[in-house]
Amino acid sequence: MVHARSSSDYLANLSNLEAISLANLPKQGQHVYALIEAGGPFAHEKDGVVFGNRERILPVHKRGFYREYTVKTAGVRHRGAKRIVCGGFKITQPEICYYTDDHYASFRIIKP
């Protein structure tokens, strides 16, 4: 897992992103991934909004390339820290998706 905060770390850290298989995501994450491919419906109004990639851990793309989705966290009433962030311009057919369980401090590439 890569933790990066400055843009100078960006290129060095890209090749170090770990992968997680879809089967190893939490069940809630697997459910959200299926909803992404189906085009919803999503539980949170912010699901599907543009993800700005301000942390600069993910590869840099034109604004609008990344979208974020909430992965339910048991025991919390707010959105929690778990997200799936997908990249691509076809929303239901993302080119790549990432999982974070620490609110964007680190990401793992989801391998379907």
Descriptive report:
With 112 residues, the protein is an alpha+beta fold. The chain has helices at residues 10-14, 27-38, and strands at 2-3, 19-21, 49-50, 66-70, 83-87, 96-100, 106-111. Residues 1-14 have low confidence and may be disordered.
Q: Which class of secondary structure composition applies to the elements?
A: alpha+beta
Task: Determine the N-to-C terminus distance.
Answer: 18 Å
The ordered string of helix (H) and strand (E) elements is EHEHEEEEE
| Gyration radius, in Å | 13 Å
Beta strand count? 7
Uncertain spans: 1-14
Q: Sheet bearing the most strands, described?
A: 7 strands, mixed
What share of the residues does DSSP label as strand, in percent? 25-35%
| Average of the residue pLDDT scores | 87
Shape: globular
What is the number of helical segments per DSSP (H or I, 4+ residues)? 2
Kindly state the percentage of residues in helix.
10-25%
